[in-house]
Amino acid sequence: MTESQRPSGEYPMYPSYGNGDAAYPPPPAHQPAQPISTGPGTTVWPGSGGAHGGGDGYGSFGQGLPQLAPQPSGHKRRAKRPVALLAAVAVAAAVVGGVTATAVGQFTGTGSSGTDSSSVVSGTTVSQTSTGTVAGVAKAVSPTIVEIGATSTAGESTGSGVIITSDGEIVTNNHVIAGASSIKVTLSTGRTYTAKVVGTDADKDLALIDLEGASGLKTATLGDSSGIKVGDQVVAIGSPEGLTGTVTSGIVSALNRDVTVAKDSEGGQGQGQQGGGSDWPFEFGGQQFNGDTGNSTTTYKAIQTDASLNPGNSGGALINMNGEIVGINSAMYSASSSGGSSSSGAGSVGLGFAIPVNTLKADLDTLRAGNSS
């Protein structure tokens, strides 16, 4: 074996292609190109740019070989792939998102229509941003609450009502219009109509009246009183003492209270009239409040609320926080002095009652048929 005298590392080691001298590849025909320093910070490689065939001869290295088309650097090619991939992912996400939104909309019935779809119920609409607020409920429902002025031989009385059809059907308490010879209704806009009685149910203290020549009115949505619970927040809207569109709020204090009221106008229900008389007499727990209910009475299961009710609220709406009518206000305890004869001495002490709206819905066809009792 011949010992090599080359210093270690003089030539790079290559894989062997055979034995003997063939164990190393032959040296290149030319020395590899070396950079030429032209000045501080500048390096020129032979054969690049316009140096082909000129200068020191290095530029002619490789002449005659086919030239490859210029290619973007490897770094640039790698940079483009993530961008293209991200674009493809974004497009795919948009497609999947659109399909998902469409599927959810079709399943829930809330597909986009290009308009604000924040309404909670038909008829009265509480926007999504105002849901659960007294202000939102008041804004949505107030246009559907009216003031009712009834004239009878006993004088003039004031009550409230709720619009349930766009052509002017209005529900109220029977005691508001009982014995009336004429009825005038004032909308929240101030416009007035003459109304006629369609049907009454004195046993449930309900009545249906109809405006003459009305159309295009905003209507209230009748909710489900079976779903309310003690402690639920509610809003009352009516015309206490003739103050149209008054809004108060409170909670449901109790359910299924047995409330007894007069069946006719002799008990003085719904007064707020000039010259006095008792206001909203009713019986509860074996006691009489606000005066004598008379001999002809009826008893129904009522919702108790601490929302402030005053003379003139009778027949108005008790509303949940979704803007749905859950009761028709019908009676309240007045802390007026026993000797007082004017309604100005009355005031709410947070003890009011409303007829559940489910009672009204069950009786609506009978009222529309014109039956009176």
Structural notes for this entry:
By secondary structure, this protein is an alpha+beta fold. It is built from 4 helices and 17 strands. The protein has helices spanning 74-108, 134-141, 174-177, 357-368; strands spanning 36-39, 42-44, 145-152, 155-163, 169-172, 182-186, 192-201, 206-211, 221-222, 233-238, 246-262, 282-284, 287-289, 297-305, 317-319, 324-334, 348-356. A 6-stranded antiparallel barrel has the order 3-4-5-8-7-6. It has a 6-stranded antiparallel beta barrel with strand order 10-11-14-17-16-15. Strand 4 and strand 5 form a beta hairpin. The radius of gyration is 45 Å and the shape is globular. Residues 48-64, 83-121, 267-278 and 337-344 have low confidence and may be disordered.
| Arithmetic mean of pLDDT | 74
Low-pLDDT parts are 48-64, 83-121, 267-278, 337-344
* Structural class based on helices, strands and sheet pairing: alpha+beta
Count of β-strands = 17
Shape: globular
Distance between the termini: 133 Å
N-to-C order of helices and strands:
EEHHEEEHEEEEEEEEEEEEH
Helix content: 10-25%
Largest sheet: 6 strands, antiparallel, barrel
The fraction of residues assigned to DSSP E strands is 25-35%
Structure annotation, total helices:
4
Largest sheet: spatial strand order: 3-4-5-8-7-6
- Using only C-alpha atoms, the radius of gyration works out to 45 Å
Could you provide a short overview of the structure?
The protein is α+β, with helices and mostly antiparallel strands. It contains four helices and 17 strands.
